[in-house]
Design goal:
CATH superfamily of the largest domain: NadA-like
Distance between the termini: 43 Å
Structural class: alpha/beta
Strand order of the largest sheet: 2-1-3-4
Order of helices and strands: HEHEHEHEHEHEHEHEHHEHEHEHEHH
CATH class of the largest domain: Alpha Beta
Oligomer: single chain
Radius of gyration: 19 Å
Helix content: 40-55%
Shape: globular
Bound molecules: 1,3-dihydroxyacetonephosphate, iron/sulfur cluster
Length: about 300
Amino acid sequence: MNKEEMYEDIRRWKKEKNAVILAHYYQNDEIQAIADYVGDSLALSQIAAKTDAKIIVFCGVHFMAETAKILSPDKKVLLPNMKAGCIMADMIDEVRLSEYKKKNPDTIIMVYVNSTAKVKALSDICVTSSNALKIIDHYAKDNKKLLYCPDQNLGKYAMKLKGYNFDVWPGFCRIHHNLDTSMVERMKEKYPNSLFIAHPECKLDVLQMADYVGSTKQLVEYVEKSDKKDFIIGTEMGVIYEMKKRCPDKNFIPLSKTLICGQMKMTTLKDLYNCLKDETNEITLDEEIRVNAKRCLDRMLELS
Ligand code: 13P
Ligand code: SF4
């Protein structure tokens, strides 16, 4: 069966089953091409919370599909490849977070959306890369004690930018964390008229060299609005698919060839096809955990 035949069936099943396909910008091109919505973590969770569809097929990693289920418990949420996880989300767990909370009972726990439902359930407020600075402001400006977890890089960036001081969990995303300033220097030399744009999961020294820092969606919107032609991309190269689609005449150069998230790329068109056909790989959650995790996500959505 070729790609077009698979797309045809997928489109038919979507209608018959009242299903919606959500995909993250890091997904393989062939997945982004058939998705109803492609977005960053915040946009996709907002769509998941509002959709009238009966089935949400979430092409992304596990925590994203879980977030959709937390917000839309009555919907059937399917993850085409159940092995697709997030390395950063696995760097914190409910046991270690509970220990931290015991030692720091009056600290507000701010959790990055790249985390499990169990970790969200123990947290006070969730953030994503597109609203973290705004929400950190909301809490840190009153000198409240804060833990930002699990992404140390976004936490350190916010502290430097805003002059705050709070605890950060030592987690990171290997794909972004591996970028360094010498790579930026080399690329800037090679493409002197380009702008360097980066995701806030990069290290602080790399972010300080960026012309713009933002979530995947914000990066896509930035290149679209800019009158510049060449961009060095400091995030997973899947975003280039949407950038090219919106701006076919502009040039997008990944900062490094290693900017590929193996977890995100695990999901194939065949996975999506089988998942929608058989309605397999359903996300289920313990109701108490879901309700507590939802509280932390609802606070974020209110402040976004
Ligand atoms: P965004 O919310 O910016 O899409 O980021 C998700 C992610 O996993 C980045 O590595
Ligand atoms: Fe997780 Fe990094 Fe992949 Fe994003 S790019 S899903 S943070 S491992």
